[in-house]
Batch of 4 targets.
Target 1
Amino acid sequence: MTSSKLNQFLNENLEDLKSQGLYNEIDPVKGANGPIIHVNGKDLINLSSNNYLGLATDARLKNVAKQAIDSHGVGAGAVRTINGTLDLHLKLEEKLAQFKGTEAAIAYQSGFNCNMAAISAVMDKNDAILSDELNHASIIDGCRLSKAKIIRVNHSDMEDLRQKAKEAVESGLYNKIMIITDGVFSMDGDVAKLPEIVEIAEEFDLMTYVDDAHGSGVLGKGAGTVKHFGLQDKVDFQIGTLSKAIGVVGGYVAGKQNLIDWLKVRSRPFLFSTSLTPADVAASTAAIDLLMESSELQEKLWENSEYLKKGLSALGFDIGHSETPITPCIIGDEKTTQQFSKRLNEEGVYAKSIVFPTVPKGTGRVRNMPTAAHTKDMLDQALAIYEKVGKEMNLI
Ligand code: PMP
């Protein structure tokens, strides 16, 4: 029998979310997550996946994954520290270090658990973390798990960061202090001010931690935001995910050898959760090879995103201040945002609404993620639907 307290808690809170228009309905996708997806019996132009370069369905990677299953099986069989470190994991980590320009790298089962793992392995209750207020949820959770003092910094406000860094150092309260930021902020598409962040870190001798989930494969000729600014030697932790531009699943930290050695003995998901599957690891390694060999897919991604941004702006939509392919269409009110997304969907575009608590109240948006796999024709069709629905709802 279910506990009556649990029932009451669930029913009241679910009702509350639904009445505020904040309950997120899940749309199952039938088949692959490509530029066109099949949802609720219809083919839709997909502007909601993180598959930036179209690699999630790339034929070359599918073949590599199949071969890895044939040679290594479907599962790694154990955690990394028992006997779940296969030759394929080491190959991936070597490749990641090469890709990021660091001494070494360590792979995790997801970007989310990578942040939980890495932050809590290094920081503790005697430390402090200066964390941008728009950092990803997994960074926030990793910071909380570490028990370090979390000092929230106004978004990309370098004056605020400098002031709070100075206060934290001068207070003498903390053993270690770390600055943590997203490389590219996932809801607005703006890029962290890494040169200034690194300067502040050097001034006060602080650690730097950059989660480049949305910059890797996209900026810095593919290598990410840190490379984009030429700061490979100045950032202690380069975090990435294998689930977005790389097209597969997993997360990683790239950095100095001693950092990676420490994470291998102290980061809990590495010690206590079964390692990535052979197919994931082999496909990710092959994807990074593709990225290092050619920038063709990145060029296509940027061309498509410029095209979509120009088109939405010309129609009169507020697309914010993105500096990357992430293209928000800011509507404001939560219910209107959800209604807009629903109407786009009915007309043939899958562009998901993003509302509080993922973004602040009153800044609801439909977030568009163009990819290298979209054709001009698909983008033109999407823009025509945006125009139709935008006019119908008096948004433009
Ligand atoms: N960090 C950031 C900045 C992200 O945007 C995401 C993905 N939403 C993650 C970490 C988590 O990555 P993953 O999906 O691989 O768990």
Target 2
Amino acid sequence: ETQTPTPFTVIPNRRPATDEERWIAMEDPVFGKVFTDHMARATWRDGHGWADRRIVPLAPLPLHPGAAVLHYAQQAFEGLKAYRHEDGSVWLFRPEANAARLAASCRRMALPEVSEEDFLAALEALIAADHAWVPGTPGSSLYLRPLVIATEASLLVQPAAEVDFIVTASPVGAYMAAPGGVSIWVSRGYHRANAGGTGDTKTAGNYAASMLPQAEAKAHGCQQVLFLDAREDTYVEELGGMNLVAVRADGSILTPRLTGTILPGVTRDSILTLLRDEGRAVEERDIALTELVEGIESGEILELFACGTAAVVTPIARLVSDDLDVTVRGAGEGGSVADAVLARLTDLQYGRGEDAHGWMRRV
Ligand code: COI
């Protein structure tokens, strides 16, 4: 494989975790709570562009309390994973797609774009420094969290003149435990995004605003919240941090179209592609909650699942709300479409299946 020459200077961590500390930390990590020894970092200044590309020991950031990101959430982020194959090699899944989405998010948040070249070089240099942290156990991976933040100390509501690009890495297993499928709370009082807002942007505010409805979901015994569109309060959009897909009894697929208020998931796109590859009809359109519920009740819709980088493919067993409680028939059953597409996706990611679309990139 070709190795891109890295413009990222490596300043090694002089006190990395010992092998034993790392093994313990990687044994059964809670999602996003364990971090590797290093982070990638680059700094942008207005008029100078990106500079100081470096891999440095993971450490708290010295951040001015007036930093714009802390006040006005001028930031964008990404999530993608590196997978260890059986021969020990490490691979990223569609990192170019995440680079493109981060650039789009940066444009919307009036942040400087990180080029695809810098994005890939940062990931590759960080993974090279922390290769021992890429798990090899089934279902586990190294979750990479690229982040662009406005660091300038300024309370003016205007694009910051100083910005940092940071990438951290976390060994992870499953995001949600889902034996038999998760329960979903349909939020009736809260919406996630509106037209012209930042719903299709991967930025902190969308997730901050989802936490109260997400807590409401949890209080009702559900693992995730589902939002309806803000304009008509009618159509299902997405979950707190993942996309929604339905499988009909005839084998066809139904999922909300990308309206600008929904995050264009890389996993969503990959799964729809794999399902189309096997000849399934995939319909992307507005789906009323009532249509979904009636479909589930009549048996026309057999499965629902959530998909995302963190969630991968998680079957949904129940939809719950104040005036609603429906059970999805095919959830978590052997032979489900969700199981099959999860297997196909993960076979590809872990190097067990053919990569027909050239999605994997060796690092
Ligand atoms: C991801 O799937 O990568 C996300 O950013 C979503 C979040 C729920 C972890």
Target 3
Amino acid sequence: MPQRDFNDEKDQQLESVRTDAEHTRLTTQQGVRVDHTDDSLTAGARGPTLLEDFHAREKITHFDHERIPERVVHARGAGAYGHFQPYDTWLAEYTAAEFLTDPQIRTPVFVRFSTVAGSRGSADTVRDVRGFATKFYTRQGNYDLVGNNMPVFFIQDGIKFPDFVHAVKPEPHNEIPQAQSAHDTLWDFVAQQPETMHMIMWLMSDRALPRSYRMMQGFGVHTFRLVSADGRGTFVKFHWKPLLGTHSLVWDETQKIAGKDPDFNRRDLWEAIETGDFPEWELGVQLVSEDDEHSFDFDLLDATKIIPEEQVPVRPVGRLVLDRNPDNFFAETEQVAFHTANIVPGIDFSNDPLLQARNFSYLDTQLLRLGGPNFAHIPVNRPVAPVHTNQRDGFAQHRIHRGRTSYFDNSLAGGCPAVSGQFPEVFTHYQEKVEGAKIRKRSDSFKDFYSQATLFYNSMTQPEKDHIVAAFRFELGKVEQTEIRAAVVDHLNHVDHGLATQVAQGIGVPAPQQEATPNHGRSSPALSQLISPVASA
Ligand code: HEM
């Protein structure tokens, strides 16, 4: 049993704002009891409604303001509370983050699973990536691991994210189609951007049709950095493995279920937790020493690449359990705000350009979605770690800051809040040496677009390959422009000639005559045999 269970702390925090309707009497927002809420105050039984009817005005005004913008992506989701606990202390050699290294600490978490492209009311069982975002309420502050159920991403640089999402979302003139994959703009984007090919292979695979959120892997995707108490950096990839194994639906099932029960995945999660069948995941890490940064035949900063587990094994770190459903979907699941830049001492970023853009985007979008700069006060977002800032005012300020000072440095409040302490007691940015000319150019080390797509396809069993072929035929077959279909088939020919031929035959474009030179003629070195010294430690 853990000695220090901070679950209680988070729960107490939430308890202080929970309200129940039972045994209460109806009041206004001001606490004034009302005798009647079914009829407006009118001048005479059939006359006009009076402006002085404060109860009717307040009731309707509040209703008018009930909706907030849905997330620009990942709008549909389901969340749950739980806890995380490391098995062991071994990772302390690499990170100062105590929630990953002290088996005595059980850290409360909130996890939100989501689809990406559909709107808030769309069906669960669509062909899509799934979000797997975890907020750890650690004693050193909130840490958010904002991942997906696939280990790579569509693009390499976040500046392309608005283009990508505009291509994925329903077309702007008629808001059709809701489904992620089956439309011209997505495939037009794919045809223009071969960097998407590895992720497109995942998207056309059964991984895009999870049977249950409880049966999904999760990945941090980017290479992050762990920082040890003595300031040493180690590259890391995060993995979640479900205890129930990884399982998918088949395409035909997803179509039927989407019609009969669009809430299939969220219902499954909710009911499992309600009945005490708590889902579990194991957190694992792949570690790469900084000395090995350039030892791979892909770039560690390229989010379209995995680190093959044969090269760097995944080492287990701890266990995540989800054991409590939220009390209120809007207050908790809708208002939770994850952010890749929410990190704690012992974890830091890499220079992955996709991650760097995300570190800007999440806070920015939440300022709009959650109505201003005070959304960290919303109970689900509030850390269990003490919070003392000099930030003041703003819409919906919930704190009553006492005293005369809200600036640093001051003498009037004894210099508080103080800036003192040493890493890892305080967060200190990892001192990475950076130099170079300011340029707007993708690194050449990012330009192998096909090798890992091939690796993925080759790792599939025959039925899985058949599903991939069928998915490409179904999705690409709906694209109106033959040129786009042919361009995608050409990319597929660089992944696997047989795959490209089968897809072409199913969608009415000429099959490629011969096998393409891998990677458009760029040399594609065999995956190195390197086993990282860190990985084998
Ligand atoms: C939302 C994952 C790339 C911008 C999300 C969510 C997840 C996620 C899981 C939903 C969070 C929730 O449940 O509330 C990822 C992963 C990415 C990626 C794994 C690539 C590795 C990007 C990029 C950008 C971006 C490149 C922008 C440059 C957003 C925005 C939201 C979002 C704006 C909505 C956040 C909100 O409204 O709270 N992403 N994303 N994402 N993502 Fe990403």
Target 4
Amino acid sequence: MGSTSDWETMRHAARVLDELDVPHETRVVSAHRTPQRLYDYATGAADRGLKVVIAGAGGAAHLPGMAASMTHLPVLGVPVESKALKGVDSLYSIVQMPGGIPVGTLAIGKPGAINAGLLAAAILATSDEALAGRLKAWRTAQTDSVATDPE
Ligand code: RP5
């Protein structure tokens, strides 16, 4: 994520990964405040064994696109809700990648972070049967938790 201030949103992605027992790491990597850290992180990600990158940022949110430009790994972008423009700026910054460098863009804020975790798990589950089983069980539990009566 681009800032410690993004953690309140991005912790929901980490929580989902915890629930699905998916090993992961959490890092603050700012595209504009720590460009060298971003370069080192993105260029080294595949060699360190990472399989998917979730990048959350707000405002002029160039972190996911810049990360995607420096790794062939799938990058999932989460637009963090900004104060001034409610995350519409973040969404447009992340989703409007020119053709050639894709970023899989999720919804603004908490729902996007949750779905980034689930989508990362789904990508990993294509080559991990045990994880696929845990993901199916997670989805079943969610279905079972939906009340039929509103009161
Ligand atoms: C972006 O600027 C971050 O991703 C964050 O969403 C936003 C504000 O950062 P802080 O000023 O709170 O550190 O780079």
